[in-house]
Amino acid sequence: MSFTKSSRDVSVTSDFLLTAECKQFDGHFRRSFVQLDPVLGNADGSFHVEGRDFSKSARNVCLKVEHGSTILHASLRKMDGSWEDTSFNLDVIVANRNGTLVIDTSTIQAPDGIVTCDTLEKLVEDCRQAAKELKTQTHDQLREESSGASQSINTAFKSIEQMQEALSDGGAYVDRQNFGPEAGHLGFLLSDATSQWSRMEDAVGNASQLIKDFQRTKLHSVIQEIEAAERKIAVDVDDTMLKQKEAKDHLQSLGDQIGQHQKEHTTALNERHDAAMRTIGFSIASVLVPFVFIPLAVQASSERESWDKRAIELENTITETSCLKDRLDGFQIGLERALLAANQSSEKCRRLRAEVKTISEELDGLEGRIHEKKCTMTEYVQTLKDAESDGVTALEYSQTLQEGREILQEVLRVKEDFDPEKLQIMLQL
C-alpha cells in the first residue's frame, strides 16, 4: 500500500488531518487530505484501527518517516489516567489512489468467514455454568433426600428399641403367645424406612442419569462446535497459505517487471539525451551545410520526441506497477494477519477443548461417585427389605416372650449398617 513511496511533504494538521502531495499516474503531484479521527481509536493506550476519535485522548501528536513509512507518534491516555507513548504505521491503512489519499483497511481485516472464538467461548462458559448448576442441584437434592432417609431409619430403630424394652420388662407380655400387633407395627416402621431409602435410591439413580444426559447432549454439542471450528480454521489456514504463496510469486514477478521497466526507462532517457544532443549539433551544422544537416536534425528531433514519449510511458508503467505491488504488499500484510488470527483461534480452540475436557472429567468423577452410592444404596434398601420380611414373619410366628426379644434383637443388628457416622460418609459426594 505504502502511500509514503508516492507522496511528499506529508504532515498532520492541528485538527488531525493527514495531508500530503501525492503523485498521479501522469507524474504530476496534487495536494490531498484525509481525516484520521474516524478510523483510529484509543484502546487503553494503543492505536486501534476502526476505532474513533483517538485525538480526544491524545497529546504530543507528530509524524516521522522511518524506514520508508510514515509513522504516527502520540501519547495516548490509558484507562487508569496514565499516558502511554505509542506509534502507528499509517501506510497500513492509507493509500495513494492516483493522487488522492484514501483510507483502506481491507488488507488488515480478516477475510470473510474467518473463524472467531467469541461464540465458542460463550458456549463453553454457558456449559461450565450449566454444569455448576447441575452439580449444585444434585448435591441439594441428594442432601434433602438423605436427610429424610436418615431421619426415617433413626425413627424406626428408636421405636424398635422401645418395643424391645417393653418386651424386656415383661409385664403384660409375660404370658403372650401371639405377637401379631407387634409384628404389624414392626412391619410399618421398617416399611416406612424402606420407602424413604428407596426414594433416596431413586434420587441417586436420577442424578446419575441427569449427569449422563448432560454429557450426551449439551457437553457433546459444545465439543462438536469446537471440532467444527477447528476444521474450518484448518481450511482457512491452508487457503491463506496458498494465497500467500501466490502473492509471493506475483510480487516476485512485479519486482522483476519493475526492474526491467527501470532499465528500459534508463535506456530511453539516455537515448532521448543523445537524440537531443544530435538535434542541437545537426541544427548548428545546418547553418553551414543546410541540405545535409537539416534532414538529419529533423530525424534526430523526431527520435528525441519518440524516446521522450517512451520514457513517459515507462514512468507511468513503473508507477502503476509499483502501486499494484504496494497493494499486493498490503494484501500480504492482511494475509499474515489472517494467518495470525487463525493460529490464535486455533490456540483458543485447544484451550476451550481442554476446559470442556476438565468439565467432562469433573462430571465423570461425580457420576462415578454417585454410581458407587447407588450400588451401596441398593444394598441398604435390600437389607431393610430382608429385615422387614424376616423380622415381621418371625415375630408373627413367635410364641414366647423370649422368642420375640431375640427376633427384635436380630432386627436391631441391622442398625450397625446404618450408623450415623457411616451414613454421613456414605452420603458424601
Automatic annotation (TrEMBL):
Pfam families: CVNH (PF08881). SUPFAM superfamilies: Bacterial hemolysins (SSF58100), Cyanovirin-N (SSF51322). The keyword Coiled coil applies. Residues 2-103 form the Cyanovirin-N domain. Residues 335-369 form a coiled coil. This is Cyanovirin-N domain-containing protein. Gene3D superfamilies: Cyanovirin-N. The keyword 4Fe-4S does not apply. InterPro entries: Cyanovirin-N, Cyanovirin-N_sf. It comes from Lasiodiplodia hormozganensis. Keywords: Coiled coil. SMART domains: CVNH. PANTHER family: CYANOVIRIN-N DOMAIN-CONTAINING PROTEIN, CYANOVIRIN-N HOMOLOG.
